[in-house]
Design goal:
It is a single chain. With 126 residues, this protein is of the alpha/beta class. Strands 1, 2, 3, 4, 5 and 6 form a six-stranded mixed beta sheet that branches. Helix 1 links the parallel strand 4 and strand 5. It is globular and about 40 Å long. The two termini are 19 Å apart. 29% of the residues are buried.
Length: 126
């Protein structure tokens, strides 16, 4: 896991399936979301991420919470359309290189601007 004073994330290389303990690669284009089911609109977004990453010479990634933030914010008994393992396989099928899986309780206190700066920019290099 990659740690900061206040949050934890797991970085997975989707081509190898290995967890990476080093920092997120520099210059990363990231899609954010729960991606439950990875439906056609999700696939379009992920394709756009891969395309933009290729254009600017960056890496493609998906950032999501595991377990999903909805487990904490709405009904924790809600069934999900896909498991995290199924999501990772679908991300790989879409050409995404990295999955950034975050622990929601360590992020929920952050303001949107802090999340963007401290997580997306400083840690994920978006």
């Amino acid at each position: 896991m990659l740690f900061n004073d206040s949050f934890a994330i797991r970085l997975l290389n989707l081509s190898t399936g290995q967890q990476i303990t080093a920092a997120v690669p520099d210059a990363t284009v990231i899609a954010l979301g729960n991606f439950d089911g990875v439906h056609c609109a999700h696939r379009a977004l992920l394709s756009a991420v891969v395309r933009q990453a290729n254009i600017i010479g960056a890496h493609s990634a998906v950032f999501c919470f595991d377990p999903p933030s909805s487990d904490y914010l709405t009904n924790p008994q809600k069934k999900h359309l896909s498991t995290v393992e199924e999501k990772l396989a679908l991300f790989t099928d879409c050409g995404i290189e990295y999955a950034i899986l975050a622990d929601f309780p360590s992020f929920h206190h952050m303001s949107p601007s802090s999340f963007v700066q401290e997580v997306l920019i400083d840690v994920c290099h978006a």
